[in-house]
Amino acid sequence: MWAHRLIAPGRLEPVEADEPGELRPGRVLVRFEAGGICGSDLPSFLGVRDLLVGASHGKPGYPLHELVGEVEASAADDLPVGTRVVGWAEGHLGLAEKFVARADQVCALGDDLTSVHATVIQPLCTVLYAVARLGDVRGARVAVIGQGSIGMLFSYVLKAAGAGHVTGVDPIDRRDAAEAFGVDTMEWRASSEWAASLGDGPRPDIVVEAVGHQAATLEHAVEALAHGGTVLAFGVPDDTHYAFPFARFFRKDATLQAGITRDRRRSLDVARDYLVEHREMLDAYVTHVIPVADAQTAFELAVQPTAGRLKVVLEG
Prior knowledge:
Elements: E1 2-8, E2 11-16, E3 27-36, H1 42-45, E4 66-74, E5 84-88, E6 98-102, E7 106-108, H2 115-118, H3 121-134, E8 141-145, H4 149-160, E9 165-170, E10 185-188, H5 191-197, E11 206-209, H6 216-224, E12 230-233, H7 246-251, E13 255-258, H8 264-277, H9 282-285, E14 286-291, H10 295-302, E15 311-315
Parallel strand pairs: 8-9, 8-11, 9-10, 11-12, 12-13, 14-15
Antiparallel strand pairs: 1-2, 3-4, 3-6, 3-15, 4-5, 5-7
Helix pairs in contact: 3-4, 3-8, 5-6
């Protein structure tokens, strides 16, 4: 089967790979239809070993995990052959003609969405799960640090859930997308500068850190936060330990919430139905669709944040 393999930092190579072997119970073999490039894939593309799936580094199909495809073989009773599914590729080995997925980490698709648009269900489900854990956000002042593809989903979902004021913060100019994603104030500057500028003015009750891969933006989130507020640390860490401004956090009597998604099948079901209802966001969200044969071009595009570029999707 065809696959792409990471042969050096920032370099993918098309290869012929062996098909996955016999399926373990509760798994399905899926033929690739479309895949979304996630911000958490990009450090791996650049050579950083992922803390959770580092064993996959260098294997054909790595790194891609947001996938849509058709079940070709099944060891799961409720996902028969021919079912279209969306969700996580096991081991993040989805950049291949066929990939294995756990049945509890994918959900079935109808005909409501194209395969390209259906890729959005996977990142959306992680956002919906995290926002649900925040509780009632109606009337809250919220800020989202990072207005790339995942940060924009947070802005949209929080506003749709009734947040009183949504501030987006990004060093890239995202003002053209603000209205489509419910952002009331788009701050085109570094998060450190934004946090320092708040002074005695109103501060957000909730700050979502949607960047990850470093610790500085967590510090900026704590600095910006109102007393008694919540920091949602959603961005994926690349290291086991981070320095954290605990004294400042302590004095603000704040809450820190992590962003991992559990109960994935149910969460995907919820996101599928939500996206069908809110499909108006899709044209603004999926900005680039590139043939999977040109995966190198797609990853090079995704790894360089630019105005006007949000979600990059690979299509089979």
